Amino acid sequence: MSEAGDTDSVPDLTGRWKAVAVVRRTVLTLLVVGQTLAGVYGMLSVLPYHGGDLLEQSIVLLFALLFAWISVGFWTAMLGFYMRRRGGDPQSLARRHDAATLAATPLARTALVLPIYNEPVDRTLAGLRATVESLRASGQLDHFDFYILSDSRDADVWLAERAGWYALCRELGLEGRLFYRHRPVNLNFKSGNVADFLRRWGADYRYMVVLDADSVMGGDTLVRMVRHMELAPRIGILQSSPSLINAQSAFARFQQFANRIYGPLFSTGLAALQLGEAAYWGHNAIIRTEPFMAHCGLRRLSGFGLFKGSIMSHDFVEAAYMGRAGYQVWMEPELHESYEESPPTLVDELTRDRRWTKGNMQHIWLLFFGRRIRFAHRMAFINGILSYLASPVWFVFLVLTSIEATRLTLWPIDYFPDPQNSMFPVWPEWHPHWAVAMILSTFFLLFFPKFLAVADVLLSGGRRQFGGFWKLLVSVCLELFVSMLLAPIRMLAHSRYVLEALFNVSLHWGGQNRTDETGWGQAVISQAPGTLLAGGWAALALWLDPMFFYWSLPVALPLVLAAPTSVLLSRVAIGQWLRNRGLLLTPEEQRLIPLVRTVAEPAALNPTPLSAFEVAVIDPRLNRLHRTQARHRRALEPETLRQWAQRCLEQGPGALNRFQLNALARDADSLAWLHRQAWLSAPEDYWGRRIGQLGAVALPAYQGYV
Amino acid sequence: MPYHEVEQTLARALTYLRLSGITVTPEVARGALHLVDSALEQGEQRLLARVMERLPAAFPLPEEVLPPQTPPLHHVSVHYADSL
């Protein structure tokens, strides 16, 4: 395909960054191990028997794991702060080429691919429109083609997508450059969708940029990414670090603020540690297609239970395979104008986390059985696994400490916890000041990086972008408070998801998967188990020892308050209230750039009260569009389709199930028949009324639709 | 035949033309009236059906050139490693 794909002809700069990476990772390891050993020593001092029995040894082991985990985060943030204060990482990709070199680098054909699955069509296409317009403004639009790759299963969704694609083609003048592919079978999820694109058209492009449904990327950033790839043919994947935008609910605004203020510190630190062995996050990244097709096909897992079948979280694995093939994977935090959105509610976030937990737990198999995968990418697997596994570890830690407290209060003191090895009694000791020191040091590791991020903003002169010093300070305090409220709720949910994943079962206890505000009934039902558990635990703690009760409160209280927390944070009105008071502001909100503005309030592509299926039946132009793209080769018996079409004509699409509607929408003859018959319907019939509604829509807007 | 059926038939024809991308000018409206009138001359039964069947012949509907939904295929394989 491309001469740039020939890596042998390119100077290899790997040696330099690899040496730096080894030094940095070694220092990090020493710091984390040293800090953890100090923590373990402190914990042993705090425990009454100083780790003298199995219970206390288990507590110490879990504590060491958790302490090491937060220690990694702490030192990553420290490194990020150091790099940002010195003006950026000298090893980063952004420092490798000056602006003149980049500007003089010719571009190569690049496909922007947008895999979607039952997404809100208006918002998704508004994001794509914003990205296209930004590329047009950069003057480099001609080097890019665009693919909407739909796996949507509802006829009403994919018909709307296709109508939106057609409208967008006409609006942007992108006929023959903006394409729409709807897979009839969504094999292997998102990675299968992208692989389907690559098999069909991947050879036409040197690069593909993978977007998410809520992604928006600036044209200059995309151009810069292509040029970086052109200048460094050993790079297989270049990942940007997306910022969150367009948050409306209180929950999304807290996530957006946290991402915007703390994100740069952590992503800079992470990038400085990973260098050319970074992870791929699945979107807002550019990929060299030829090696990706040659080396990153995902085999099905051959194990048992969770470890059998398609790989769900494909991105980390693809990065690992790219690394295995000798290509580099970089994450570059200085690639700005890369955006995505936060889930609007806690319920939505946890729904997403449920999928991600399964995907990351699957990586355990690859961690142990993946061959020739680089050590750094195995560490990325561990990082992803621990992101979720830390929750049940924390949960078990709390259970064991509760047993310890119960034992001290209710059971007689055991002066010989290890009778085989000691003839002398062990006196249980309790040092409250050491316990307080342990708690404070843990809080320090958790919260100091956040204040360092604020210091970074202040030192960079960016406080006005966050509403000024005092509003920034109040916002950070609010965010700290909310993150403390959310942490135990997430911990309990993630613990459940890990159990579900590892035992390959589904433990339902409440309806989820919403995108609207969370209702009280739903919140109370879904949070009831955690609330009851925490209430019982706190009551037991109070009965055992008031000190233990106070110790349990930071975890128990948020769980008891989980339902109101979930409901109130989902409220858009509270989000707007905070915004109107200048709290939780982000630079993108302060300076609403066109890229962000266009997705904030996307125009309705279908302004009619009709469903996309109904419009496809009635509207002459859209009916022709859908017929042209539909199958003429029937997968079902003609008589079956005719019966369904007849029912649809008499009772409307509501009388059919999803499979039947999909079959009719995919069949050209059925669409044509329904169109003819609908227009012959009496005004009082179902389709006659629908025609009346469509005809009543203000025509200028509707004509804009097609 | 009730008057409103004729009115509804004319309205249905004009709506179809508008949704097909034809601007309803006085000339187009007169053409639609003439179409309904000539259909009525053949009887009151199936008035709507006759009008709708004759509509495409009476008003050549604009045939928009649809953009290609996908480019020509250029099949290649995605390779899978021998091992995980």
Q: What's the short story on this structure?
A:
The complex is a heterodimer of chains A (706) and B (84). By secondary structure, chain A is α/β, with parallel strands linked by helices.
Strand order of the largest sheet of chain A: 3-2-1-4-8-6-11
Which segments of chain B are poorly predicted (pLDDT under 50) over 5 or more consecutive residues? Answer: none
Write the CATH homologous superfamily of the domain at 97-215 and 225-231 in chain A.
Spore Coat Polysaccharide Biosynthesis Protein SpsA, Chain A
Shape summary of chain B: elongated
Largest interface summary? A-B, 56 and 31 residues
Q: What do the pLDDT scores of chain A average to?
A: 91
What's the oligomerization state?
heterodimer
Question: Count of DSSP E strands of chain B?
Answer: 0
Secondary-structure class of chain B:
mainly alpha
The tally of helices of chain B reads 3
Distance between the termini of chain B: 76 Å
Radius of gyration of chain A: 28 Å
- Percent of residues in beta strands of chain B: under 5%
> Which structural class is indicated by helix and strand composition of chain A?
alpha/beta
* CATH topology category name of the domain at 97-215 and 225-231 in chain A: Spore Coat Polysaccharide Biosynthesis Protein SpsA, Chain A
- Name the helicity range of chain B: 40-55%
SSE string of chain B, helix = H, strand = E? HHH
What is the residue-averaged pLDDT of chain B? 88
Q: Uncertain runs of chain A with pLDDT below 50, 5 residues or more? A: 1-11, 509-514, 698-706
Assign the CATH class of the domain at 97-215 and 225-231 in chain A: Alpha Beta
What do these coordinates show?
The complex is a heterodimer of chains A (706) and B (84). With 706 residues, chain A is α/β, with parallel strands linked by helices. Among the domains of chain A are: 97-215 and 225-231, Spore Coat Polysaccharide Biosynthesis Protein SpsA, Chain A, CATH 3.90.550.10; 612-705, no CATH class. In chain A, 62% of the residues lie in helices and 7% in strands. A seven-stranded mixed β-sheet of chain A has the order 3-2-1-4-8-6-11, sandwiched between helices. In chain A, strands 5-12-7 form a three-stranded mixed β-sheet. Chain A has a two-stranded antiparallel ribbon with strand order 9-10. Residues 1-11, 509-514 and 698-706 of chain A have low confidence and may be disordered. Chain B is mainly alpha-helical. Chain B has a domain at 3-58. Chain B has three helices and no strands. Chain B is elongated, with a radius of gyration of 23 Å. Chain B starts with a helix and ends in a 26-residue tail after the last helix. In chain B, 15% of the residues are buried. The chains are: A alpha/beta (706), B mainly alpha (84). The A-B interface holds A 145, 162, 165-166, 169-170, 174-176, 178-181, 195, 198-204, 293-299, 301, 321, 324, 365-366, 369-371, 618-621, 624-625, 628-629, 676, 679-680, 682-683, 691, 694-695, 699, 702-703, 706 and B 8, 11-12, 15-16, 18-21, 48-49, 52, 61, 64, 66-71, 73-81, 83-84.
